[in-house]
């Protein structure tokens, strides 16, 4: 997992900022009031088409990789627009682009679902009751979360403070750094690379990432191992006697691995700073199917 950056530019949909954001939040607040009055069922509070329209932008922000496990999902699946803070708990963030990330369906549907463990106190929800007036809801609309396209340093600092005060045990793909907590352990004999805690204080974070995101499910550990083979080959080449042009070529390959565009960038960046000694040697026969 690596820290992502929001791509907010002229093509950013108007429904997620300014007057469009206020309009969407007002509709959400009115639906919440209907829900509290018993007029609609819980799921009817939300329009799934709203966040689905953000998928293409989110895919570009993550290089079409799952924001949690860094596996490229677009080859075999459509991926999900994932609510970092689940809408079943944080209903008022259902239409917040700031709360979205794109993930593979396994991380989202098989593991995370509505899980959101925290150590602090949950964010306070807007004061909406069955008796809330239209004027009260109109006053709340536009203020349910930060406006990413018209954001001040004060707004951002307030959000980050609230986020950190809640102390989630799942990293936010856009605001948190996993690199200080995630370490990687390679086992050639098992043909896997596993995420382990970088220190004692990271144990709980890794445990929750395993339980809530499946970051060490067998398939992912094997995929990390298989995808890392060209990386190790180039690292070993650099230890040998090479012509300057060959050194340059090997380094260019390694630079691509850590650039953020390929799968499992967080792993490569870790190994760049913490190389195993000696470097792994992976015989070709190990990659042959077992008879």
Description:
It is a single chain. With 291 residues, the protein is mostly helical. It folds into two domains: 14-166, no CATH class; 182-287, no CATH class. 40% of the residues lie in helices and 7% in strands. The chain is built from ten helices and four strands, in the order αααββαααββαααα. Strands 1-2 form a two-stranded antiparallel sheet. A two-stranded antiparallel ribbon has the order 3-4. α1 crosses α5 (134-140) and α8 packs antiparallel against α9 (244-257). The longest helix is centred in the C-terminal third of the chain and has 22 residues, at 218-239. It is elongated and about 75 Å long. The protein starts with 17 loop residues before the first helix and ends in an 18-residue tail after the last helix. The relative contact order is 0.12. The mean pLDDT is 91.
Short description:
The protein is mostly helical and 291 residues long. It has ten helices and four strands. It has two domains: 153 residues, no CATH class; 106 residues, no CATH class.
| Total of DSSP H or I helical runs spanning 4+ residues | 10
End-to-end separation: 35 Å
Count of DSSP strands: 4
Number of domains: 2
**Elements, N to C (H/E):** HHHEEHHHEEHHHH
Question: Cα-atom Rg, whole angstroms?
Answer: 22 Å
Strand order of the largest sheet: 1-2
Beta fraction: 5-15%
Shape: elongated
- Structural classification: mainly alpha
Question: Whole-number average pLDDT?
Answer: 91
Indicate the percent of residues in helices.
25-40%
* Low-pLDDT windows of residues: none
| Sheet having the most strands | 2 strands, antiparallel
């Amino acid at each position: 997992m690596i820290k992502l950056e929001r791509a907010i530019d002229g093509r950013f949909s108007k429904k997620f900022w300014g007057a469009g954001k206020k309009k969407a939040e007002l509709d959400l607040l009115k639906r919440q009031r209907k829900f509290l009055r018993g007029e609609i069922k819980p799921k009817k509070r939300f329009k799934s088409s709203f966040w689905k329209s953000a998928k293409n932008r989110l895919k570009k922000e993550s290089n079409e990789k799952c924001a949690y496990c860094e596996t490229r999902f677009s080859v075999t699946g459509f991926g999900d627009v994932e609510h970092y803070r689940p809408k079943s708990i944080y209903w008022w963030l259902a239409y917040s682009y700031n709360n979205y990330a794109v993930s593979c369906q396994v991380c989202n549907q098989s593991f995370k679902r509505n899980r959101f463990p925290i150590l602090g106190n949950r964010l306070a929800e807007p004061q909406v009751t069955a008796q809330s007036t239209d004027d009260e809801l109109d006053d709340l609309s536009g203020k349910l979360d930060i406006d990413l396209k018209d954001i001040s340093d004060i707004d951002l600092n307030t959000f980050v403070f609230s986020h950190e005060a809640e102390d989630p045990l799942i990293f936010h793909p856009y605001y948190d750094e996993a690199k200080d907590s995630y370490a990687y352990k390679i086992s050639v004999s098992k043909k896997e690379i596993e995420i382990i805690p970088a220190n004692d204080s990271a144990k709980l974070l890794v445990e929750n990432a395993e339980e809530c995101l499946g970051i060490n499910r067998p398939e992912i550990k094997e995929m990390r191992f298989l995808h890392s083979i060209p990386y190790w080959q180039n690292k070993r080449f650099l230890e040998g006697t090479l012509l300057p042009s060959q050194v340059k070529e090997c380094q260019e390959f390694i630079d691509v691995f850590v650039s953020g565009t390929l799968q499992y960038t967080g792993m490569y960046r870790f190994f760049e700073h913490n190389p195993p000694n000696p470097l792994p040697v992976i015989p070709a026969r190990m990659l042959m199917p077992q008879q």
